[in-house]
Each structure stands twice: as C-alpha cells, then as structure tokens.
C-alpha cells in the first residue's frame, strides 16, 4: 500500500482547516489515513459526530505509553521520569485522579476568582498604557495574565514565571529538537519537585498545597503540576491574542458585543470554535477493532482527531466557515470531548471574558499596528497563536 | 413530564451543564460533580436549556426522560 500523505500541520489561513482535511471530511466519508511527523501512519477522523464518538468510546485509549499512541515528532516522548498525568490515564484510574482536582476548577470557583483576575488585567493594561506605542499585546497582556493566574493558583512564586514561560513555549514548539525537549522537561520537573517538597511539611492554602493536604502522593502532584503549568501558560494567551485581532477586525460586531455583557461568552465560544488552537490534542490508540461509519479501524492503531476540520463541519455548524460572534454554539470540540475534556476550560473562559470585557472598554481606540495578515502566526507550534501582536491607541500620529 | 437524570459515576465535572443553565445545575464543591437543582424543567425554555446541557455534557452523564 502507498504511504499516506503527511498530516497537514501548517495553517494557510489562521482559522480555516486545510483542504487536505476538508476533503477527507466532505468527500471521503470523514475517515482517512495520514503519515505523522514521527513517520508513523495513523487514522484520522474529521466529522464532529465521529470525533465526539471517538472521545466518548472507551475502546479509544489515552495511554501514551502504548507504542502505537500517535507521535507527532520523531524521537521518544520525554516523560521526565514522571508518572502518567490525568490526560494519559484511562478509566478507572482517570476518574479518581480527575475528581481529586476538578473541584478547583468549577464554574463557581472560577466566578470567585473573577475579582482577582480583574485586578491582574487592569494592572497589565495600566502598565501597557504607560509604556511606549506600539506595544506588544502578547508580551504585555496575553501571556502574563494567564501566567500570573496559574502561578498564583498553583502556588508557584511569580518571580519564577519567566522560567516557566520560556520552557513551556519550548516544549510546545514543533521545531524543538528531541534533546532540547528532554532537557527542558527535566529542568521543569526538577524545579517542580523542589517546590512540592518545600510545601510538603506544612501544606499552604494553594492548589498544590491542598492536593498534598488531601494526602495525595507527591509523585502524582508533580505530574499534575506539570500538566497544569504547561496547559495554563500558552493556550489562554494564544486565544487572547487571536481573539483581540478577530474582534478589532470586526468593529461592528465588537460594538454589538460590548452593548451587552451577556454577549461576551457566546463570542468566546465562537472564537474557540473557529481557531481550535489545540488542533491535534485529541489523539488516541484503539484497544479493540472499532467501526466508524462503515470503516473498521483495527485494534492497536493510532487515531488523530482533526478537531479543526470538525469544528468547521458544515453538517454541524451552518455556514461553518463564517465567524458569527452571536452563533451561540457550544457543541464544538475546541476543549476536546469525553472524560478528558479540558480541566481548565472554565478558567480559560473567565480569563478571556475579563480581558475582552475590559480591554475594549478601557481602550476604545485600540487598533492593530501591523495588518492582521502580516502578523507572525505560530505555524511552528503544537498550539496555534501569534508570536507578537503590535497594537497602538489614542489619536493617530 | 420531562425529567433530568444524572448518572453521577460518569460525571467528570466539566461544568458544561452549569453553563447551559445555572438555575438548574450546580457542581459539588469537593469533586466538581453535578448537582441537579431542578429535576423537572418548568417550561419550554428550561427544556431547551436542559437539551443543551445533555448535548454538551462531555461524559454523557445527563439524559432527559419524558
């Protein structure tokens, strides 16, 4: 059999899925074959209903130690000697591990966090406005806000946030060599081990401290801390910067959104859908033969969900390619689906809500200092976003 | 009469139901699992919201029984 085509990972358009993927979705029944960056051949699913089925079916395993689990880059996966984290566990181990921490991320807990997030956002906007124009919104707002929030939540001293920012970005970049990735993971693990050990004797009232006080094994707390720091740094930052560009490019829709605070959350859902920044985060390996729409995927095969293609699936989202801030659809898979759906999704929603509700009201003259189509988009990262976002404000010079 | 049923051992605390209808759903403080506040949706709007909760629940915890 011929080698299947390479998985298309670079985006030609910031949000539209590549033609290779929409062709599989619309002309080939939704199920396809690709070759991953590791050289491994894998199955792909591309329709929304197929991906929701895949992510709720226990025959699709999240066990990354399985040699047939999808690998996107050459070389082994660095574990840093850590135990498998939440996202790598199947039931029944997964349920207990998730319930031990998900109380930290309920909708209500995130609402309680709102005043503190508001303070952080206001301070960063103040600092940006006091600085030179144009400013880089990624450096001044999009990155530090989620970084500070997750550091405070976990009980990581903010003085160390640069250390994490640099290293989590390196882990997520596609062109990081296997050796560098390994080294960076070990540095992060070493730091977190010391931090957790320092909290062990008299656990402080922060997320990691509360996990230790519950009697959780420090080794499990380490895997959790690593996962939350990596997941909490880049993802929200990328949605903030992509969201700001999209909203500034649609002044009429932005004005309509700002008329009523109830319109912010639906707009966020639409932005999550159209960008699907963690496009390839939903990967599994089959433990049994599984039939999807007449195609049998044998046991022991790698399967990758083409989540961006699914979030633009015309059978699920009418006029799917169009950004409609008031669409109000929450059935997208931008946060995944099934038991592994993003643990921090309601924190992300709250951060995005506070940023969008505050930034455009406080800085009504905010505008791009570089045309949207000339911005440095992250075609080289596992998580899509923008490297730099030059913005300016006030009277035109 | 329509009734919301939650299979609690499936729940993973994503909170999608609370987003769909905060008047009908809440989450337990300790493990984030669902608490159904209004078992019987009172009107069409409430039924519609309950449907959204069922559809967006990632762990298939919720169902509607007519």
Please give a handful of descriptors for the protein shown:
heterodimer, A: 397 residues, 3-stranded antiparallel beta sheet, globular, B: 66 residues, alpha+beta, two-stranded antiparallel ribbon
Describe the structure.
The complex is a heterodimer of chains A (397) and B (66). In chain A, 47% of the residues lie in helices and 8% in strands. By secondary structure, chain A is α+β, with helices and mostly antiparallel strands. Chain A has one domain (19-392): Cytochrome P450 (Cytochrome p450). In chain A, strand 1 (31-35) and strand 2 (41-45) form a beta hairpin. In chain A, helix 4 packs parallel to helix 14 and helix 7 (161-172) packs across helix 10. Chain A is globular. Chain B has two helices and four strands; from the N terminus they run E-H-E-E-H-E. Chain B has helices at 16-20, 44-56; strands at 3-6, 25-27, 34-36, 62-65. The longest helix of chain B has 13 residues, at 44-56.
Tell me briefly what this model is.
The complex is a heterodimer of chains A (397) and B (66). Chain A is of the alpha+beta class and 397 residues long. In chain A, 47% of the residues lie in helices and 8% in strands.
Report the structural category of chain B. alpha+beta
**Helix share bin of chain A:** 40-55%
How far is it from the N-terminal to the C-terminal residue of chain B, by CA? 6 Å
Mean pLDDT of chain B: 96
Mean pLDDT of chain A: 94
The name CATH uses for the topology of chain A is Cytochrome p450
Backbone CA Rg of chain B: 11 Å
> Structural class, from secondary structure content of chain A?
alpha+beta
| Tally of separate domains of chain A | 1
Number of strands of chain A: 10
CATH superfamily of chain A: Cytochrome P450
Detail the poorly predicted runs of chain A.
Answer: none
Q: Supply the number of helical segments of chain A.
A: 14
Give a short account of the largest sheet of chain B.
2 strands, antiparallel
What portion of residues of chain B belong to β-strands? 15-25%
């Amino acid at each position: 059999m011929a080698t299947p085509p390479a998985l298309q990972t670079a985006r030609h358009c910031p949000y539209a899925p590549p033609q290779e993927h929409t062709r599989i979705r619309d002309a080939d029944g939704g199920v396809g074959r690709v070759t991953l960056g590791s050289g491994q051949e894998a199955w792909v699913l591309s329709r929304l209903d197929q991906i929701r089925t895949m992510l709720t079916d226990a025959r699709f395993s999240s066990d990354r130690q399985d040699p047939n689990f999808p690998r996107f880059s050459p070389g082994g996966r660095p574990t840093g000697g850590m135990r498998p984290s939440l996202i790598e566990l199947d039931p029944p181990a997964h349920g207990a591990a998730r319930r031990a921490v998900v109380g930290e991320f309920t909708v209500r807990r995130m609402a309680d966090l709102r005043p503190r997030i508001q303070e952080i956002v206001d301070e960063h906007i103040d600092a940006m406005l006091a600085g030179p124009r144009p400013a880089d919104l990624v450096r001044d707002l999009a990155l530090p806000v989620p970084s500070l929030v997750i550091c405070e939540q976990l009980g990581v001293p903010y003085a160390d946030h640069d250390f994490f920012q640099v290293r989590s970005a390196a882990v997520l970049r596609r062109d990081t060599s296997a050796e560098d990735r390994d080294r960076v993971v070990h540095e992060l693990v070493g730091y977190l081990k010391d931090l957790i050990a320092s909290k062990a004797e008299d656990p402080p009232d922060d997320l990691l401290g509360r996990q230790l006080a519950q009697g959780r094994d420090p080794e499990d707390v380490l895997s959790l801390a690593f996962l939350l720091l990596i997941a909490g740094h880049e993802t929200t930052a990328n949605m903030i910067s992509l969201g700001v560009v999209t909203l500034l490019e649609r002044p009429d829709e932005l004005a309509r959104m700002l008329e009523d605070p109830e319109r912010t959350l639906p707009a966020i859902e639409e932005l999550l859908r159209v960008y699907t920044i963690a496009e390839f985060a939903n990967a599994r390996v089959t433990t049994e033969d599984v039939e999807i729409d007449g195609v049998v995927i044998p046991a022991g095969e790698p399967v990758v969900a083409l989540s961006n293609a699914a979030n633009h699936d015309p059978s699920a989202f009418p006029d799917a390619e169009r950004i409609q801030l008031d669409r109000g659809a929450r059935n997208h898979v931008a946060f995944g689906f099934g038991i592994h759906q993003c643990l921090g999704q309601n924190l992300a929603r709250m951060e995005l809500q506070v940023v969008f509700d505050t930034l455009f009201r406080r800085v009504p003259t905010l505008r791009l200092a570089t045309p949207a189509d000339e911005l440095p988009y992250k075609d080289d990262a596992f998580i899509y976003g923008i490297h730099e976002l030059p913005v300016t404000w006030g009277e035109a010079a | 009469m329509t009734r919301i049923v939650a299979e609690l051992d499936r729940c993973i605390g994503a909170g999608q139901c609370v987003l769909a209808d905060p008047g009908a759903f809440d989450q337990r403080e300790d493990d984030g699992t669902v608490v159904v506040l209004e078992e019987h949706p009172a009107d069409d709007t409430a039924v519609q919201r309950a449907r959204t909760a069922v559809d967006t629940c990632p762990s298939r915890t919720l169902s509607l029984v007519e």
